[in-house]
Amino acid sequence: MLYETGSMEGGGTSHGKFTKVASFKEKVRFVAIAKTSAIVVLENNQIFYRGESIDHHFPNDEWKGAFTRLKLWSDSADEQKIVDITSGHGFTLAVTDAGNLWGWGRRFLEAIGQESNTPKQLKLPRGQLCRRVWAATGTESPCAFIELEDSESGTKAIYSAGKSEKGLLGQGVNVKESKDFKKIQLGAKDVVFTQMSLGAESAIAIDSEGLLWGWGHNDQQRLGLADVVETGIHRPMKLYSLNQLAE
User: Fold this and answer.
1) pLDDT in tens, 204-213
2) Residue partners of 83: CB distance under 8 A and separation at least 6
């Protein structure tokens, strides 16, 4: 069973408490929530969607008030198990166990130069396997981050692509658009995060040493940095150690 609380623009109902909105025969494995949509992946790998379709996020660009089946693969023989999924404003990205990245929603696909009104497997840097994915939630920043693993060495790194005027891409001061997924680097060092959360224009992440990083728009000091201009932080910046925060 699936429960929700609050409201969702473009097709959600408003609840003051948790209310059952759907009952599935299989257990729910993943849920991806955005401003106007909800995506559910079941244990049997079936995908269901609900909400408002923005720029062909859903089939036929149709709004759905009830959860409706979405098929990524027309032939069951080609199906791959979904191991991670995320939704931004008007788009969804899913990672499969084969290391492939699927996307749907023209808003993001157009931003990375892979336009399509239907779900498609996205191009990745050569020799890289996708392992995790995160999407920005803002209406003005169709961008996403992925964790890629080198198919030969097993080395992992974080990449980003899309558009952001406020530094959310994390690729440098003058980079507001990237059609290709490009590696996020700090000097000569690759960045690998164990956890990441993207908002509308800013991001917070934790690395393997328990250090907290932030980048993107610092309006109203949302990243906790009083001495950084509000125009944004354009590369990941070390904020605090989680151990220091605990003290």
Assistant:
1) 999 888 888 9
2) 95, 96, 97, 131
3 state SS of 223: coil
Split into its structural domains, the chain has a count of 1
Q: Residue 45 to residues 27, 72, 77, 96: CA-CA distances in angstroms? A: 10, 10, 13, 10
Residue 9 within any structural domain of the chain: no
> The domain containing residue 232 runs over which residues?
124-247
73 domain-assigned = no
For 211-244, the pLDDT digits (tens) are: 889 898 876 666 666 665 556 788 888 886 444 4
170 located within any domain: yes
Question: How far out from the chain centre does Cα 239 lie?
Answer: 22
Q: How far is CA 207 from CA 14, 194, 210, 236, in A?
A: 37, 5, 5, 11
- Indicate the burial class of 144 (C-beta count within 10 angstroms; 0-12, 13-18, 19 or more): buried
What is the number of other CB atoms lying within 10 angstroms of the CB of residue 22? 15
| Nearest residue to 179 via CA among 113, 109, 108 | 113
CA distances, 37 to each of 58, 64, 84, 125, 179 (Å): 10, 9, 17, 29, 25
N-terminal to C-terminal alpha carbon distance within the chain: 39
